[in-house]
Amino acid sequence: MSYPADSEFVFELLTCRWAERAWPPESERESALVVARQLGTKKRRWDTVVVEADPEALAARAAFGDDELDSDLLHIVRHAPADWAWYRDALPHPGYPWRYVLAAIHRAAARGVVEKRRTGRRIEIRRVAPYPDWVRRIVAVENKPDLDASAARALSGQLEHDVETALADEVWLATAATGNTVEPALLENIPVDVGILALDFSDGVVSDAGDVAWYPSSLSSDAKEGESEADTDRTETRLRLAERAYGRGWRSYHETMRPDCRHFELRREGDALLPWCAAKECHQTAAECSGSCDCFQPEPPQWRTNGWPIEGGPGKGIKRLLAQRREHVRKRSPPDT
Ligand code: SF4
Q1: Ligand 1 contact via 267 beta carbon (within 6 Å)
Q2: Please, is 47 exposed, middle or buried when counting C-beta atoms within 10 Å of its C-beta (0-12, 13-18, 19+)?
Q3: Which ligand 1 atom is nearest residue 297's CA?
Q4: In terms of Cα–Cα distance, which of 241, 287, 272, 337 is closest to 32?
Q5: Which domain of life is it from (predicted)?
Q6: How many CA atoms lie within 13 A of 2 on its CB side?
Q7: Are 177 and 18 contacting, i.e. CB atoms less than 8 angstroms apart?
Q8: Which residue among 253, 255, 258 is best mutated to probe the pocket of ligand 1, counting the most ligand atoms within 8 A of its Cβ?
Q9: Which of 85, 133, 161, 229 suits 287 as a labelling partner, its CA being 20 to 30 A distant?
Q10: Using alpha carbons only, what angle is made at residue 327 by residues 296 and 162, rounded to the nearest 5 degrees?
Q11: Is the CB of residue 296 below 6 angstroms from any atom belonging to ligand 1?
Q12: How many angstroms does the Cα of residue 37 sit away from the middle of ligand 1?
């Protein structure tokens, strides 16, 4: 086993941490990175998403706060003018009634991502900053630590869909290194455009944990984006995805797990912190770590008042720590791993 615990969830977290440190595999980093997990569209959800970003533009994105901008807010911040203007003059028609745009303007102003004022009966808006063109490339990674022939067959349809839709610029399959070269029979079941990464986390997360077994093809369209309706849709969907990645990162598992349980801990695995259940003495999965868990026990109230060390501490401290780490990585300059 080249990763701790027999758990795809743990492998996924380690893959995200490794990508944060070492992406792109076997080449120099030229972009800033935003790494997220479990993101996608209604039709397809990816385990790991790596957004390669222009470093300066990513820094400029911070003017719009830490939270993601949904499609309604994006419509406003991308078109808000430098000088005050009536919102209907400033924004392109959204394709739905203006009253919904007005509601989104109030929401955007409350979040501080646009300015608004009333002039007579009209609402005027002004941007707080130009919304930067920060997304360079989006890379989708499917995690399958135990890649045997039947797993490869089961995945091939989804991966073919990824290649056909080309929503991501590159698609990879990440598997746990076995020490053997990847069997050619496995490669036959995987679309030829999909890259294969063999990850060895037996020493925890280290930069050289990843070996490229097969390089992917670039799925980026040569045609200039925005020329056709399909291009526009793709651009919009990719930006929404990137925004979700920006807002959530990959450490947001604390929002669906129970760090407020007295048994919830974070344990270090090399350069990664992983959730650990002291009651079950294992890395628990996101699914089992819920309020319906038989061993769940709320943390004692006095824990919340004393301040608490990082390891094994109460929920709020863990959440704060994970949020701080996300913030730190987001602001880091690109070649610094
Ligand atoms: S006891 Fe259950 S809820 Fe508590 S940390 Fe363990 S898995 Fe999560």
Answers
A1: no
A2: buried
A3: 4
A4: 337
A5: Archaea
A6: 21
A7: no
A8: 258
A9: 161
A10: 80
A11: yes
A12: 21
| Ligand 1 closest atom vs CA 265 | 5
Strand partners of residue 35: 50
> What number does the ligand 1 atom closest to the CA of 294 have?
2
- Dump pLDDT digits (tens) for 113-162: 999 999 999 999 999 999 999 999 999 999 999 888 888 888 999 999 99
- pTM comes to 0.88
Residue 185: partners with Cβ closer than 8 Å, 6 or more residues away: 149
Q: Which amino acid is at 153?
A: R
Strand order in the sheet with 135-143: 32-40, 45-53, 135-143, 170-176, 195-199, 210-214
Tokens of 277: 């259940």
Q: Write out the two tokens for 298.
A: 């709320």
Closest residue CA from atom 5 of ligand 1: 264
Between CA 50 and CA 33 the distance in angstroms is: 7
Does the Cβ of 262 fall within 6 Å of ligand 1? no
